[in-house]
Amino acid sequence: MRTCLVCIFGILATGSALYANEVVGPLIGSISSSGVRMLYRPSAEAQTLSLQVFDANKQMVKMVSAECKAEHDFVAHFTVSGLRPASTYEYQIATTGDSPKVLVKAGFRHRFTTASQQRSGERVVVSFVSCVDVEPTEIWSEMEQLKVDAVCLMGDTPYIDSSDLSVARKKHRQFLQMPDLVRLGKKTAVVGIWDDHDFGKNNGNGLNLLEGKIRTRKAFVDYRAHDRYGNGSEGVYHKLDLGSLEIFFLDPRYFSQTEPSPVDRSQPTCFGKQQWDWLLQGLKESKAKFKVLAMGAIWEDKKNSETDDMFTYWYERDALLDFIKDQQIPGVTLLGGDIHVARHLKHPDRVGYDLHDFIISPGHERTITGLDVYHPSLLWSLVEGRQFLTLTVDTRGDESYLTAEFRQPEGRVNRRVVLTLTSLTPLSPDKNLSAGMRAHWDFDQGLQNQSLLGARIDAQSHGGASIDKTAQTSGGAVRFQRSKSQFLNVPKSFLDDNSTAHTVSLWFKPASLPKHATGDRSFLLESTAQGVPSNTRAWHLSLGLRATADPSKINLQLYTVTLQPAASPGAAPRQISQGPFDFLLDRQRLRDHWNHVAFTFDAESLSLFLNGDVAAVHPLPVKGPAAEFGGLVIGGHRAGKGRNFDGWIDEVAVWQRLLDQDEIRELSRLSH
Q: Is there a domain that residue 275 lies in?
């Protein structure tokens, strides 16, 4: 149907039907390459509305109708299909019947642009904001000036904190009636997800809001124009495909704690099996160059008393990231909100490439300094209000780029991160001993790390520990003098968060050993909490020598700190120290002799190898993955000074996998 625009419904709306506290929209929602979703609520009155869509020549190309019904709070939802990709259309909304009235007149204020089908040769700009209430903010007008292609509301947008349907609907109305957002939403796609406050309860999950979430979901569906709401009856997950960029909006609330996890039936789920299957299938099938996994919660531990983060469900988080790595899916980044602090983290080599993790919060003025906590992957943070994020994907050149900008009004850019698609593309995996190697200090020329993580984990000398090239090694080794409290410090972590499989290997030659019949100990290495020496408990990696009651023996001793699974529904896992795990061997085997030692961790046991042979297998009393740690001390324990090693250490290496015995034997055959 093609009709001249000026011939359609020339009568503009007048009269008492439109009141500020009644009208919501029009609001553009999900867009695709061939269609658009929209909503409009002209009044608290049942009626039928007509939406007309016009092309660049002012010719009507589509007309659809929708009902304003009480069961949807009188919000009409329009679905338009059959449009051209990457095309701009104007739209008009009118009542139906014998005397139709135009309620929304077509023009430059009422238009939308469909998404591109092209995966290359395009530029797309999307903004993200979380934690915004019904209050004035310059953010919306700033987004309008930037001419973003879509606005993503990332939860706590708005604050509802009630499962009363009438309250939830009222808050959604008030939020979408903010003038600057109204103006933006008339011509820009506005989509998103919820977090705890718009889900209905602070720290809310699917179990503690079991009945109320049905009502808050209904209000959310009423006041969003998405092409999908979860599985159709539960949850609100969906995705937005903009050609070169695909955004997966994940729902960590509705299903959480309500059923066993699809990856570990002994643990409660976060995402639920249906959402889990949808997500994995969508990632595997995605043709977009860049994929964003976006949700209101964060992907790490908030480190407070609340449990609404993916640390609580580390097994699902890590299974998802492992899937991306195993399937070699390129272009993935993470995004979260919630914590009233903006942050940028980079998880090194987590998915076959560095995984960037953006947290954008808050859009209002209220910050929470106490949630700006340490994390070994943290690169930057800002505790200020009125923040939003833009992601710009540019695929017009030989190289494709994703640029993340942490922004505030008045054009302020606080941080800019530019990522190439090449940097977010997995390399062909190694098939030799270097496969999975995360750290390697060979000490031949200096203290530099030789693994793919590069200089971020170069070791630093303390107390004068230095390279000795006369220590009967093929290159060099570090000489540690206990009397001078010498050690090396590695300032960053090199393993995945909550790793379930890794191997540590090194050569050592003691110049002296802990004295018999004392409590003396000397450490070959021990992990630290925050990348600097301290006594804080974080010794997931701990290997040392200890005196025993037998004057002819020495104890080669392991400790570890792991996560203990949650003890009750809604609780978080906690750190638990495990050990000591002892292995006694002859003193004469160690003193002034080079020995190769390695140990593996598989979340169920620690296996110790000496000179290529299995020395001991230590089952963990409590099975669980590694607890967080931030760095490593070599030649001493986590505090650096005290209990230092006396002698030489060489070829320290760490793998993000379990080496088998043949590989460990190969390491032990290296000349020393």
A: no
Which amino acid is it at 285?
E
pTM of the model: 0.94
d(CA 131, CA 474): 58
Quote the Cα angle for 659-660-664, to 5°: 75
Specify the pLDDT at position 671.
64
Nearest CA-CA partner of 56 in 94, 8, 103, 5: 5
**How far apart are alpha carbons 395 and 400 in whole angstroms?**
4
Residue 307, domain extent: 120-258+289-424
> Distance between CA 152 and CA 96 in Å, rounded?
32
DSSP 308: -
Count the domains in the chain. 3
Is the pLDDT at 474 greater than 80? The verdict is no
As given in the structure block, the two tokens for residue 306 are 């609340």
Structure tokens at 199: 């889900």
Give the three-class secondary structure for 127: strand
CATH number at residue 87: 2.60.40.380
Asked whether residue 410 falls in the same domain as residue 483, the answer is no
Say whether both 319 and 384 belong to one domain: yes
Please tell me whether residues 110 and 128 are part of one structural domain.
no
Dihedral of alpha carbons 410, 416, 422, 424, sign:
negative
pLDDT tens readout for residues 100-141: 999 999 999 999 999 999 999 999 999 999 999 999 999 999
Percent of all residues in the chain with a pLDDT value above 90, rounded to a whole number = 91
Reported as a pLDDT band with limits 50, 70 and 90, residue 8 is very low
